[in-house]
């Protein structure tokens, strides 16, 4: 029931502004019969479909045949009032890639394109209410929800015989961040600073928790595989939050740039990690004495020599995103995307440790409509 309530709440961030915008056909600030100024909706919805394919058959240079299909949606629904601005953004993506790696067993039923793996999966909903205070300074209240649509797997081996281990799913993890911020806003960029930010992490998947994919929800003394009913499925953190945003169309002819950086520091993180209990930075710490989980390929010796500022930087969550779009025509564009994350609550896969890296480049067909036109 809790999971359904959270889903409905998150979806309302997206659909409420869309529904309200559909019902408001104003394209300029208007007044009602009493002369009171009213606001105006400026909205844009951009669904896109990217399809890519490579086919190799008896090709001397060789190669792996592949088909990739990814759907994306970016919507911006802004309500501008003389006294405040309500800005809502929906950034969604989901895609699969099929590959013919030609290394399956003889009795494989996979056939052509026997491997299917997820290539993109993103839910990012933001709703921000801002008030202007002095010149370019103001205050804002922001709610942001992040998660994914489908299950995520770590693969060992290649082809049809690869072993898949589930590491994530919808609301496992899910993040709900709410912040009361001071904001500096210019035409193309803005910076928000909050010392009172709540960030709740959700993991509604007991099998992931049992396999130690806890994303910081389960602390060491909460973990009890023998009794799953004792699992903690949510963790609330109170901390500081900084967000910088840059968005400009036509930085060069037909080239658009979007950049976002978010930093979050949990006031309870040092205690949760156990730094206050032992000197975990001297290379001799007993892992059983701290709640911190070493990332893959990481050792206690790697943490030596960090001063107070270094420790705080190490504990701070980072989420950086960069997008470039070049428009060839009204419905065709080339795009590049890069997303970097640093989170010590994720122990990592392979040799990347706490770093999470996503990069994509391609050509897409997209459609754009405004509701209403502005």
SS element count, helices:
4
Structural class: mainly beta
CATH class of the domain at 2-25 and 74-87 and 119-147 and 161-267 and 316-366: Mainly Beta
Helix content: 10-25%
Mean pLDDT: 78
Give me the strand/helix succession.
HEEEEEEEEEHEEHHEEE
- For the largest sheet, list the strands in their spatial order: 1-2-3-4-5-8-9-10-11-12-13-14
Strand content: over 45%
* Total DSSP E strands: 14
Keywords:
Porin; 4 helices; mainly beta; single chain; two-stranded antiparallel sheet; 10% helix; twelve-stranded antiparallel beta barrel
Structure explained in plain terms:
The chain has a domain at 2-25 and 74-87 and 119-147 and 161-267 and 316-366: Beta Barrel (Porin). It is built from 4 helices and 14 strands. β8 and β9 form a beta hairpin. The chain is mainly beta. The longest helix is centred in the first third of the chain and has 21 residues, at 2-22.
